[in-house]
């Protein structure tokens, strides 16, 4: 399984990579913002994308919308991991094409549970 994490925080990317690796997901690519994430998504096919919302250059919801326009990503799960918790933002996320919404700070076990669910792994 190839996973892409998109977050402007180096510390958060490190924490995510560590949690995913501990959960058995060892093929994890990191991306620094929406522009970088979209570029990497065009270069490589990922099985799951996890993205922050508030980032420089291109925010996560814009990136999710752009990724969803790519034919190879129509059915790919995309999880949004953010401090945003309002229903309005969650609705915008769904409209952009997000599969699920996880509020920071994340608990590694809950993150892995969500990842396993969207990847249909029990």
How many separate structural domains?
1
Total count of helical runs of at least 4 residues: 5
> What shape does the CA trace take?
globular
Derived structural class: alpha/beta
State the CATH architecture: 3-Layer(aba) Sandwich
**Strand portion:** 15-25%
Give unreliable regions as ranges: none
CATH topology: Rossmann fold
Instruction: Kindly report how far apart the N and C termini lie.
Output: 15 Å
Largest sheet: 5 strands, parallel
- Per CATH, the class reads Alpha Beta
Mean pLDDT: 95
List how many beta strands DSSP finds: 5
CATH superfamily: Response regulator
| Rg, nearest Å | 13 Å
Strand order within the widest sheet?
Answer: 2-1-3-4-5
Helix content: 40-55%
Order of helices and strands: EHEHEHEHEH
Q: Can you tell me about this structure?
A:
By secondary structure, this protein is an alpha/beta fold. The chain has one domain (2-118): Rossmann fold (3-Layer(aba) Sandwich), CATH 3.40.50.2300. The chain has five helices and five strands. The protein has a five-stranded parallel β-sheet, with helices on both faces. Strand 1, helix 1 (10-22) and strand 2 (27-31) form a beta-alpha-beta unit. Helix 2 (34-43) runs parallel beside helix 3 and helix 3 (60-68) runs parallel beside helix 4 (87-96). The mean pLDDT is 95.
